[in-house]
Amino acid sequence: EVLGSEQGPEEIRRAAEAFYASGNVADAAALARRAYEVSPSAQTANFLRQAEAALSDQLKAELLHGGKVPRLKVSTGLVRQMPLSAPERYLLSRIDGLRTVEAIVQVSPIHELDALRCFKGFVEQGLIELR
Known about the structure:
This protein is 64% helix and 5% strand. The mean pLDDT is 94. A two-stranded antiparallel ribbon has the order 1-2. It is elongated and about 45 Å long. The chain is mostly helical and 131 residues long.
């Protein structure tokens, strides 16, 4: 299935459940959020919690376990020029080559799942490396 091609709330929910069943919890969580926003109900709220919990577990295993320390792969001058959100700028500004991802996330005022999503994006964009 193609993320974003869904039409109505039922189709969005079914697509989210299909992604979840296939192990693609990132897309499942994104669609679950959309399903909840389009049609808030106990069912969509429960599935959203389930999908976000699974995504959180996956990101924690990938980014937190093993005491991974992020290091910038680009200059701070380039980071300043990039079109980043305030939370992304905050998290990047805390990378000093000494603190672990876990330590940065723990003291961050940003919701844990959102911070983990940001770190995942930084890795995917090649802005940071984890050692």
